[in-house]
Write a structure and sequence with these properties.
The chain is mainly alpha-helical. The protein folds into two domains: 99 residues, no CATH class; 171 residues, no CATH class. The protein is built from nine helices and no strands. Helix 3 runs antiparallel to helix 4, helix 4 packs antiparallel against helix 5 and helix 7 packs across helix 9.
Length: 271
């Protein structure tokens, strides 16, 4: 990396941290059905509006030592953590796809995945503006930026996005229906089904098998671990959205290379 590469990486990091700050607002207000624009950010304890210096992503929390400037109430470390996570993932996307237009839709996807994962973790549901919104925006962006699906043709990219949407939605919907028939109860939330449709629209149908396989593996490992240490019971519900999102991010940042290598090792054919 030369000096300009470092410069743009830092710009993307700062940009991501700012969007992470906005993410904190969305994660708190969307489940409460509040506007994400008004009112201004304020302390949830004393309700005092925060100044710009209190809202500096990551560093504002550090400078204030994790406390409100006005009432000294503790501020959760989750806020700077989400800002840092968003900044790091935005930067990672930039480093994997430097100086390419695909960083815009992929950055938007990462934003949505973090939002959906955190709301799912807190509330056990995924906002429609993430899932259905992604199913609508994914094909539009695929038409505008055909490189998202590895082609120069806008029509081919749009078709690939729509096929991915159908495969993603349909595959997990089938799993949901079969799970309900076998277990006599909902095997997963419909938000997970819609999320897979969104991912297929952005990443193509080829990503679906990888995401389903890896997210199921991750979810099983974490679930069994929680049961083993007594944090969960066998019948406890576990939000699946974060595992789907993590698997999707891994695919986006190069997991497709690992998957191709695995398939080549299994079949002996190049992919």
């Amino acid at each position: 990396m030369d000096i300009w590469d470092w410069y743009w990486a830092l710009v993307v990091f700062a940009f991501g941290a700012c969007w992470g700050s906005f993410l904190n607002v969305c994660i708190y207000r969307i489940p409460a059905e509040l506007s994400v624009v008004k009112p201004r950010s304020r302390c949830p304890k004393c309700m005092t509006n925060l100044s710009w210096k209190d809202n500096i992503p990551i560093f504002g929390w550090i400078f204030l030592r994790g406390k409100c400037r006005y009432c000294k109430a503790p501020v959760s470390a989750r806020y700077p953590s989400i800002e840092l996570l968003t900044a790091l993932l935005f930067t990672a996307v930039w480093l994997v796809y430097p100086y390419q237009w695909v960083v815009l839709p992929y950055g938007l996807l990462v934003f949505g995945l973090i939002l959906g994962s955190m709301v799912d973790y807190d509330e056990m549901w995924i906002p429609d503006r993430v899932t259905i919104g992604g199913e609508i925006i994914g094909p539009i962006l695929s038409f505008l930026i055909p490189a998202m699906h590895g082609t120069d043709s806008r029509v081919e990219s749009l078709i690939a996005s729509l096929i991915g949407l159908a495969v993603g939605f349909g595959s997990l919907y089938l799993v949901s229906v079969l799970g309900k028939l076998i277990l006599k109860k909902d095997a997963m939330g419909f938000g997970d089904v819609k999320l897979m449709g969104c991912l297929g629209a952005f990443l193509g149908w080829q990503s679906i098998i990888f995401i389903v396989f890896l997210s199921s593996l991750l979810g099983t490992i974490v679930g069994v671990t929680f049961i083993a240490i007594g944090k969960k019971e066998l019948q406890s519900k576990i939000p699946f959205g974060p595992y789907i999102s993590l698997a999707a991010v891994i695919w986006l940042l190069g997991g497709w290379k690992l998957w191709a290598a695995y398939l080549e090792w299994m079949t002996g054919a190049a992919y």
